[in-house]
Design a protein that fits this description.
With 153 residues, the protein is mainly α. It has helices at residues 6-12, 14-21, 25-51, 60-88, 90-94, 97-118, 127-149.
Length: 153
């Protein structure tokens, strides 16, 4: 008889068992995760498009400042729901290439945003800022793509 691992114990934990056996829990969690991602990507997309000059009616700095709380709220919800889904299926996720790529892209997108904001106020005339916004859009599209592929990888 082998000694149970931490992963075995986690799989037997009542909330995880409920999440795996309830007909509604996991789909509801996934839906909340998708809403959170839409909130994050939607707000980031709007600011990035403004910096790139596609949207011009609103000042970029004011737009970023106004949308940042919504972006952070969406990210917090995505983190909470994502971690809950991860904990419920750790074994499946840690061996899934799409999940690994998604996590790397999330780290890269976060680092890109941190560097962008650490440089100070958004300067929409800066080539570096424009490059970072193009990278931001590309990374978030790739994150969403990888997230969908997790189920199929």
């Amino acid at each position: 008889m082998s000694t149970p691992t931490t992963l075995d114990a986690l799989n037997l934990w009542a909330p995880i068992v409920w999440l795996k056996t309830s007909a509604y829990a996991y789909p509801t969690l996934q839906t909340m995760h998708l809403i959170a991602i839409a909130l994050v990507f939607g707000t980031v997309w709007i600011v990035d498009l403004r910096v790139l000059g596609v949207i011009r009616a609103i000042d970029a700095r004011l737009l970023a400042k106004t949308l940042l709380p919504w972006t952070l709220a969406g990210f917090a919800l995505a983190l909470l729901t994502g971690l809950t889904m991860f904990v419920s299926r750790i074994g499946d996720f840690i061996s899934n290439p799409a999940f690994i790529i998604k996590m790397c892209l999330l780290f890269a997108a976060g680092a890109n945003a941190a560097v962008l904001h650490a440089r100070g106020a958004l300067d929409e005339r800066s080539a570096i800022t424009k490059t970072q916004t193009v990278l931001s859009i590309a990374m978030w599209v790739a994150i969403i793509f990888c997230g969908r592929w997790i189920a199929y990888a």
